[in-house]
Batch of 2 targets.
Target 1
Amino acid sequence: MNETEKLVKAAIDGIQEKKGHNITTIDLQDIDDTITKFLVICEGNSPTQVSAIYDSVREVVRQKTGQKPTAIDGTQNCLWVAMDYTDMVVHVFLPEAREFYDIDNLWEDAIVTDIPDLD
């Protein structure tokens, strides 16, 4: 497992720790001119859960990989929080915001993997 895959795995662990759901990874490594190697996208049911998920991701990724996000945006209202780890960007959405922005479908030639919910 390479460093980027460890980063993605740690982010998923952090999401699952706070019962984030509808987790999708999008592998962009073989696509030219992308801003990152992986997207990790998930949902929380409320702004409070979105906040708990991003806190958990930040902590679990730091513990397991030693990495900290270079930027976090969206924490003011927690409708959509984006966490930039350079090689990976984590998006934590409320369901209606995820549906509206539809970033899951921006790269038709990417490798998309749905992660089963734990419950």
Target 2
Amino acid sequence: MKNTLENIRLSWLELKKTRTLTTIALLVAMGVILGFFTIVPSETLKIGLGFVATSIMGFLFGPVPATLGAAAIDLISYMIRPTGPYFFGFTLDKALSGLIYGLFFYRRPVRLWRSAAAKGLVSLLVNCLLATYWLSLLYGKSISLLLPARVIKNAIALPFEAVAIWLLLAGVQKAWERISRR
């Protein structure tokens, strides 16, 4: 717990660095662009790569910048291309995803189990529970009607997304180490 609190403090201090802010801005732009390649089979189900930029932010800069950056991705994406009505709950979901990725990845070694645990928590807590609740409030549909399709989609996507995060962060770690040595 002490290590986690220290990482949150260090993550907060990352926001004072110009390099952090410029990299976060680039990752926010990347997240917005990746959001354009989302497949939307129904108004209550989306398949996309939004987790990529958020997980990189969490890995490089920790929970505080990743939370803010993920919320920025959601807000900017909505301003550029709205899909349905704006609802603050979805911005909260994105921010919570950034927080989770930051807590799992910041200043920690890249491991497959860590990627699976982080993505699993995001899939369960954020995508299946919170987002389903928001959708039921927004569209007036029963949670029991929405939940099965969302659970199936997240269960199928989880191993692929966890491996993608693991491979991606391993590459980012190597590249960031080379850049940081300069």
